[in-house]
Design brief:
Length: 273
């Protein structure tokens, strides 16, 4: 099969939450570039509309539409699901990307911040998937399953809090929930996978990636020697959502430059010195 067949998303409809910036924006561009109609939703409606306009002006074969959507509250989730239902009678792809973080030294981490992160990153992801299940099921078939792609993190794979304790714990929960849903929804012909990114340029990581010099130093700590690029996310999403990824479910795809397999120093390095 040729690449244009294996990665084509022509005729597909997708929702990317938090798709105006960061990893979500990278994924949305990958989906539009492959031919999909992509709904971009977040609490910042103006940013979503602007991102959609940029993608529509880029000359890709797909198209984008931006509108507001809040995944942090029960009412917001219900409204977002209803808004999607008004725009389409089937949903081929759901990308649960909306998320937040909080960084505070151990001993000072506030109680409310833990709940805030968990409510959006875990509860919101699960409840939105549940609300949109009928639209996903309607798009699913034996030969071409509907796709759910959750955004986890390499911090959900390795014991590395880096002051973002609730974020790391929430992403570990996302990974486990991804596997649970993959098992339960396989019979409905819906695949459920997750991305586990390392450092990428985004608002969430601006403290480490906005400045070029700091970004270079951060990238030097990654085994492959750099931070992630937009095409790293776009290509991964095209694979998982296209014909080439139709037989993959329950996978946690590391896009972290090797951080996911770091284990610290070699235990016996001194013995070989």
């Amino acid at each position: 099969m040729t690449p244009d067949v294996l990665f084509s998303l022509s005729g597909k409809t997708a929702l990317v939450t938090g798709g105006a910036t960061g990893v979500g924006r990278m994924a949305a561009e990958g989906l539009v570039a492959a031919g999909a109609t992509v709904f971009i939703a977040s609490r910042k409606e103006d940013a979503c509309r602007a991102a959609a306009d940029e993608l529509d002006d880029a000359g890709y074969s797909g198209r984008a539409e931006g509108f507001g959507g809040d995944v942090a509250t029960e009412e917001g989730i219900e409204k977002l699901a209803a808004d999607v239902g008004e725009r389409t009678d089937r949903l081929d792809i759901l990308m649960n990307n909306a998320g937040t973080s909080w960084g505070t030294p151990l001993g000072e981490f506030p109680y409310f911040a833990w709940d805030k992160v968990m409510r959006l990153n875990v509860t919101g992801l699960f409840q939105l998937t549940q609300q949109l299940f009928p639209l996903l099921e309607r798009a699913a078939s034996d030969s071409d399953p509907a796709r759910v792609v959750n955004v986890g993190s390499v911090m959900g794979e390795i014991p590395h809090g880096d002051r973002a304790y609730s974020y790391a714990a929430s992403k570990a929960a996302v990974h486990h929930l991804t596997k649970i849903l993959a098992k339960e929804l396989a019979g409905k012909r819906i695949t459920v996978n997750a991305l586990a990114p390392g450092p990428f340029i985004s608002k969430m990581t601006a403290f480490a990636t906005a400045d070029e010099e700091v970004r270079s130093r951060v990238g030097a700590q990654v085994p492959l020697g750099r931070v992630g690029r937009p095409e790293d996310i776009a290509a991964a999403v095209q694979y998982l959502c296209g014909p080439g990824g139709a037989y993959v479910t329950g996978a946690i795809l590391p896009i972290s430059g090797g951080i996911n397999v770091e284990t610290g120093p070699d235990l016996f390095q001194e013995a070989y010195a």
